[in-house]
Amino acid sequence: MSQGWRIAVWLVGSIVFGILLHLLSSILFPFVIAAIIAYFLDPLADRLESAGFSRVISTIITLSGCFLFIIGAGLLLIPALKDQIFTLVRLVPLFFDIIKSWIEPIFLFLQNDMKDSGIDELKKAATEQVGTAVNWLSGFVGGIWSGGVAFFNMLSLILITPLVAFYLLRDWDILVAKINSWLPLDAAPIIREQALQIDKTMAGFIRGQACVCLVLAVYYALALSNLGLTASLLVGII
């Protein structure tokens, strides 16, 4: 196959793959999460396998530890976050009163220096922008919750993701070997080398960012809590 035909085949394949992803995006989320989990847990499963465990046992131990950690963190954080979110919601009117007290002097200053028509146009523009923002927010929230989509997405995430992650992690090396067999012989060494560099770079970047995020979350939560901020844990996690 000539170089031009190869480029055309890869281009058409990429376009078809992108269209399929777009059409199936509403049902692919649990599978994407499962693939990400399998990708990051594969090195740990390989180490357990090297220690003498079978691949199935290594997969079960790795996934069980991962999900137990997630569930434990959720059980510890959700009650505290729930209280802080409710407290924050109760403080929202006070927050808007403070903003109003800051903005009113500015409007009074502008009212003294501008004509009535200018003030009216400014108020009209501000009202339109606020209305647009509220309509967008209400439409966004309504789109998420309409028809029970959020419930079924969460249900599929809870039920499908662990199952798919198990099979992907168990057969990860087989999948990699299968994809490796599809590579064109003349370009296979270059593709493998570049894929290995991408894997190392991505893994290092994500590990580094995760460590930074964890340290900052703990630092902000503890520091703001010592300063008396009501939603210190929520701010730290965000």
What keyword list fits this structure?
0% strand, 238 residues, 8 helices
What do you see in this structure?
There is one protein chain. Helix content is about 90%, strand content about 0%. It is mainly alpha-helical and about 240 residues long. The longest helix is centred in the middle third of the chain and has 59 residues, at about 55-115. The chain is extended.
List the helices and strands and how they pair.
Elements: H1 3-23, H2 25-50, H3 55-113, H4 116-145, H5 149-170, H6 172-181, H7 188-226, H8 232-237
Beta strand count: 0
Termini distance?
Answer: 52 Å
Q: Major β-sheet, in short?
A: none
Q: Radius of gyration in whole Å, from Cα?
A: 26 Å
In percent terms, what proportion of residues is strand? under 5%
Helix percent band? over 70%
Structural class: mainly alpha
Order of helices and strands: HHHHHHHH
Specify the overall morphology: extended
Task: List low-pLDDT spans.
Answer: none
Count of helix runs: 8
> What is the average of the pLDDT values?
82
In short:
By secondary structure, the chain is mainly α. Helices cover 89% and strands 0% of the residues.
